[in-house]
Amino acid sequence: MTHPLSEPEVDIANRDLLPTTSSQRQWTLYNYLTLWIGMAHNVSTYMMAGGFIALGLSWWEAILTVLVGTLIVLVPILLNSHAGTQYGIPFPVYARASFGGVGAGVPALLRALVAAGWFGINAAIGGQAVQMFLSMLIPGWAHLSTAFTFVGLDFGGWVSFLLFWFLNIWIIYHGIDAVRRFEAWAGPLVLLLGIGLLLWAYNAAHGFGPMLHQPAKVHGAALWAVEIPALTSVVGNWATLSLNIPDFTRFAKSQKAQIWGQTLGLPTTMTVFSAIGVLVTSATIVVFHQAIADPVTLLGHFHNVLLLLISLGAVVVATLSVNVAANVVSPAYDFIQLFPKHLNFSRAGLLTGILGIVMVPWLLISNPHIYIFSWLNVYGGFLGPIAGILIADYWVFRKTTLAVVELYAKGGRYYYANGYNWRAIAALAGGVVIALIGKVVPALAWLFNYSWFVGFIVAFIVYLGLMQTAESPDVRLAGSR
């Protein structure tokens, strides 16, 4: 299909936010399959799953946690994917139906800030790999790299981090089609790295037996104190993509292509790669008598220079793969929603990268407790409510019917009062407060452990209640068919 809009008719968008045309819809089942292979097969997924072992779960508890959490988050991913393919619209435009033409900037900003943090985290991981490269290739680099330390990162760390950072920005400056081409081959390459590490673990630990016999270190109440936040962190891991997945499905050739590509791609690849992370981390307990959940740190224990160079190269590709697809494409569209007259895709991607530096990501990944219990669960409390509002609005209140032209026009049915739907803002605020209150009120800590779920349910109910009972003209207009 072709979109009915021309740029002079658009009030609150630019070329990058317009609905996709039939010629732009080139993504097939294979593209969505490799997209998820590229995004799920990455170092942060490995670190999360391996971190569960470091926190005391057994190998099967860790893998089951990943599988269940991934199947849960697949539901909102597919529900929000539908609008992207049906109408060819990106997430910031999709959010206008519920939050308003201007109010959609609120969820877009929250989503973009989280993505900037993720961009920084993956850039820090990629920078660690580059740092090892330089240490092997440049005599004296190890000594030179410690010349000074700034904000917790030494000179060598800054050079390596920025080199990897520029690689990401270079790909983004070549546009969305470059992302599609890069993901098509990068994803499968990452799996080869994981298989290689698994083969090492099998040999080093003298078979799977010693790995699989590593017992859980937490039981009873202590087990659930780890298990519940861990499950929430798996959901939170893809909470960002569950919102902005229309940014990718708007390029789908059909609903069937994106549904099957994602259903086959996410749960299987996420579980398989997480299982590799779990087993290899279990092997490090056998071999090194400590759980090493960071694969870059683990590679530092290898002594074969050629093997190490190949492995570090795969780490760089793996991290580039997830960072470009998951953490630059979507926030770029989000920032364009906020400043459509000043930003295009490339400039917004650069802004994301700059924010990723400001958020000092190397401190976020400093240990599993910070990474899993703070970073993943806190932002889950912000993004769960947004998902609840989007799904309640599109599937229940509007029954999947949108007037696309009015999503781009001031004064239309989705502009509400002065561009804001205060009901969506209120539902978002209520969901966030209740989801995160347990972080500061110990008696309500259980709410924080389920932060994404609590925020989703509260916002879903509050939003529908406010919309269904409203008598104001702006809501009647917005809900009209």
From TrEMBL:
- Top-level taxon of origin: Bacteria
User: GO CC annotations?
Assistant: plasma membrane
Name this polypeptide is given: NCS1 nucleoside transporter family
Keyword Metal-binding assigned to the entry: answer is no
Q: Where in the cell is it found?
A: Membrane
The family assignment reads:
Belongs to the purine-cytosine permease (2.A.39) family.
The protein's GO terms of the molecular function aspect are:
nucleobase transmembrane transporter activity
**Which residues span the membrane?**
33-55, 62-79, 99-121, 157-173, 185-202, 222-243, 264-293, 305-333, 345-364, 370-392, 420-438, 444-466
Q: Which UniProt keywords apply?
A: Membrane, Transmembrane, Transmembrane helix
Membrane-topology descriptor = Multi-pass membrane protein
